[in-house]
Amino acid sequence: MLTQEERVRLQFAFLQCAFVTAIWFFGSWMGITGFLLQAGVTVFLLEAVSYIENYGLLRAKSADGKCEPMSPEHSWDSYGRFSNYLVFQLQRHADHHSHPTRALADLRTASDAPKLPAGYPFLIGVAMVPWAWRKMMNPLVLATRSEK
Fold it and tell me: Which tens digit of pLDDT belongs to each residue from 87-107?
């Protein structure tokens, strides 16, 4: 008899196989290649945005080794209008940490969160050049640490 977790894993494995089979059926090698390319871009953007949103910000640890609860000061916010429309208010990341169950469309700006110097499209490009990224962000990180 399978456990609930094993059944869920089998269901997801089956769905993934069915999805890739459908891509093959409708698109052959071109479909599979397009799917893999799209998946690669998606993973890249997800990781780049995660890196940008949390770069250099620290949470204090208590004596028992647990980190303090997440608050707006533990993630960067960005308020560029174009970026806001492009990433569906993802840039209101600090409010997400304070209120993780709040719907994406209802996220608010957090006045006590550190602010990124530009929108996500520009920052993703800068983050791909490590020396330029550090030159831009490290002074901001140090400023947020000195404010505490």
Answer: 766 777 777 777 788 887 787
